[in-house]
Every structure is written in C-alpha cells, then in structure tokens.
Amino acid sequence: MLDFGGGDISGNGLSKLFLTIAAAFAEAERDRIRERIGQVKADQKARGRYLGGKVPFGFRRGDAGELVEIPAEQEAIREMVALRAQGKALRAIANACYRISHEGVAGVLRASGV
Length: 114
What we know:
Elements: H1 13-46, E1 59-61, E2 67-69, H2 71-85, H3 90-96, H4 102-111
C-alpha cells in the first residue's frame, strides 16, 4: 500500500485508476523523449557531425562539430590496412606505425572494416 502521509491512496479504485493513468503518461513521455533523441542523433550522424566520445584516430573535431581527416594519420591507417592484408601481426604493425599501440592498431582496423 502506498502511504504519503495523507492516508492510503491505493486503497480505492479511483486512486488506483489515477496512478495507472499517470504511469501510462509518464511511460509515453519517456518513449517520446527516446524517439526524439534518436532522431536528432541520426540527423547529426547523417550530416557528418561528431556525436561525442573519443575522437577516432585519423580525425580531429572541426569547428562546426564535424570530424575532419588528418592527412598524415589517414595515410597511417592505409598503411596499417595494407600491412594487415599482408598478414602482419598487430604488434608488427604497431612497431612499423610508431606512436600507436597494438591495441590501438586493432581498434583502427576494426573501425576500417578490416
């Protein structure tokens, strides 16, 4: 039973009906918020905007919030992909492409679809 100091509010049918309706409205509003957030994120992604988190290797965040390629790092990504296609191990690729760990190489290759 629910008691908020003013007596039991779940004891009669009308109070139960009101609580059920209020809960339904709250759930519907949560669903609408979730949908709106999803639409905004999809729109921002379609526009090439960066949605947050760690900026991926090979990019920097531009003035308008978009991801901008860093040419030297993009070349390093192409080199990593080529070395992996040759069957090189992640540590060997990391050693060849200084400044990044073998775990970083694995993340870059995953992001590149390799």
